[in-house]
Amino acid sequence: MTTLNNLNGCVAQFDPQALPVSAAQAIVLQWVTPLAASERVPLRDALDRVLADDVVSPIDVPAHDNAAMDGYAFDGARLASAGAGGALRLTVSGKAFAGHPFDGGVAPDACVRIMTGAPMPAGCDTVVPQERVERAGDAVSFAADAVARGANRRHKGEDLAAGRPALAAGRMLRAADIGLLASLGIVEVAVRRRLRVAYFSTGDELRSPGEPLAPGAIYDSNRYTLGAMLRRLNVDAIDLGIVRDEPVALEAALRGAAETADVVLTSGGVSVGEADFTRAQLQSLGDVAFWSLAMRPGRPLAFGRVWSGGRPGAGRAALLFGLPGNPVATMVTFYQIVRPALLAMAGAKAQPVPLIPAVCDAPVRKRAGRTEFQRGLAARGDNGQWRVAPTGSQSSGALSTMSAANCFLVLAHDATDLDAGDPVDIMLFDGLV
Ligand code: AMP
Ligand code: MG
């Protein structure tokens, strides 16, 4: 048993061989301190950055009442005078285009030809769409029930009123947010500095793609998946290459990484083999929170803090995730344990990835007492119901079935085997925005 501080600061007991995933996620978030430093960046460079301050709208959007359709603007009070089944005949006294307002007055029996986005002329509150009128010379006529008073007019400030909160600090800026900020006339925003994440692979058997493969060697894929997953999070990723299965080399790599990085990710060397040194290094260079999860894939996962000075409290500290070496285990632990921590540390107030109820199309083996994340291919049926089937081998080394998948089947800690037709929660890989 190991002793850990839980969320309330109390001391809790966990069996390090079987730390449940939810407990691990909670401990990791407890260890995270969000970055304080911020910088100003041009709007064009702000995508996927985390907003440092609340943004309050400096202006009304839209800035003026305007037409929502091409047609004719008039005083909607006239509709009542037409009576039931009646018609209106109005003289066209000018034109208003987006960017070219009509500045004149509009007589009660007149209207203004207006295009979408053009400011509503003074005294006009209604737009009759051009398809609903008959035009003869200088006049238009239309049935009074063709339009209700106030129709087809967008109100000043209806999207955002001046002084109202537009975006909250902690927002990870997406395309719509960038557009929203642009619509407020904002050219620069304060964002948290980017998180610095150093990562390396461990293993004497590893070669980089491009190098010849010696007998018994394999290509290092984890550094490539980690690099790609980190790029999606828009962190400042520092690739430290491959480190040999050798305590001195590993210590140098970890201490060097802690000099500059906020977080260090390693892969391999965290299980109990004779060449697995990461956990021992973590124990001597820093603090260990846990090193084994009740999770599949991903049972060996060391988490804690390393210090550049080589002992707790000496020099600079970085969080360390010692991820399992098996390529799918590396990915699954990244998504389930590391990603939420990186987002929290980057200052992002992110929504949890939603779980979607589905029906499992094939039997699935599952042992109670650990959370499993199986690779699946899901599709939405004609009846709107999601259906899912595992993509094949669930070996923690089989990247091909991860590549073929579009979701995880999330099998809860206490769940057991599933039959075809049973309900199961899925977590889709791709978000739209
Ligand atoms: P380990 O935890 O170091 O014993 O690694 C577990 C398995 O994952 C072994 O079969 C390793 O060869 C493999 N492995 C470790 N690191 C990598 C990597 N960076 N790329 C591909 N496979 C790896
Ligand atoms: Mg190894």
From TrEMBL:
Catalyzes the insertion of molybdate into adenylated molybdopterin with the concomitant release of AMP. It comes from Paraburkholderia caballeronis. Belongs to the MoeA family. Coiled coil: none annotated. Its EC number is 2.10.1.1. Keywords: Magnesium, Metal-binding, Molybdenum, Molybdenum cofactor biosynthesis, Transferase. Transmembrane segments: none annotated. PANTHER family: GEPHYRIN, MOLYBDOPTERIN BIOSYNTHESIS PROTEIN. Its cofactor is Mg(2+). Pfam families: MoCF_biosynth (PF00994), MoeA_C (PF03454), MoeA_N (PF03453). One of its GO terms (molecular function) is metal ion binding. Pathway: Cofactor biosynthesis; molybdopterin biosynthesis. Residues 198-344 form the MoaB/Mog domain. It is an enzyme of class 2 (transferase). One of its GO terms (cellular component) is cytosol. GO terms for biological process: Mo-molybdopterin cofactor biosynthetic process. The keyword Magnesium applies. The lineage of its organism: Bacteria, Pseudomonadati, Pseudomonadota, Betaproteobacteria, Burkholderiales. This is Molybdopterin molybdenumtransferase. It comes from the Bacteria. It catalyses: adenylyl-molybdopterin + molybdate = Mo-molybdopterin + AMP + H(+).
